[in-house]
Amino acid sequence: MNEQFYVGINEDTHGGLTHLGRIVIDAWIFGILPESETCAGWSQSQMQNLYEKVYAAWEPYAHLPSRLPADLQQRHIKLYSEIIDIAKSKGWNAELGEDD
């Protein structure tokens, strides 16, 4: 079986608004990764390790952006606004379709 590698947030579907892309964005928010790290070429085990770090970082805030301290809330708003703009420019639509 061939191991799959993450394409990186810049090449991800929907401008990065995927499960793996959100892990990368959240890692940026919490300072786990620098914003220059896109995780391109990362293995499944590397992404799993990153997920576990991000999950642990969210735990004190019940995984809710509204419970983040002000500085992290601002980073969350800034980064997700940027990613949503990128996703929209690539054709992503937040509206659910009939099959969603």
Can you tell me about this structure?
Helices cover 46% and strands 0% of the residues. It is mainly alpha-helical and 100 residues long. The mean pLDDT is 92.
Task: Give me a quick take on this structure.
The protein is an all-alpha fold and 100 residues long. The chain has helices at residues 19-29, 44-58, 70-89.
- Sheet-strand content, in percent, reads under 5%
Please state the structural category. Answer: mainly alpha
Low-confidence stretches: none
Task: Based on Cα principal axes, name the global outline.
Answer: globular
Q: How many angstroms separate the termini? A: 31 Å
Can you summarize the main beta sheet?
none
The helix/strand order is: HHH
Q: Would you tell me the overall average pLDDT?
A: 92
Residues in helices, as a percent range? 40-55%
- Radius of gyration, CA atoms, in whole angstroms: 14 Å
Tally of contiguous helical segments? 3
Q: Count the beta strands.
A: 0
Q: Features of this protein?
A:
100 residues; mainly alpha
Ordered list of secondary-structure elements with their pairings:
Elements: H1 19-29, H2 44-58, H3 70-89
Helix pairs in contact: 1-2, 1-3
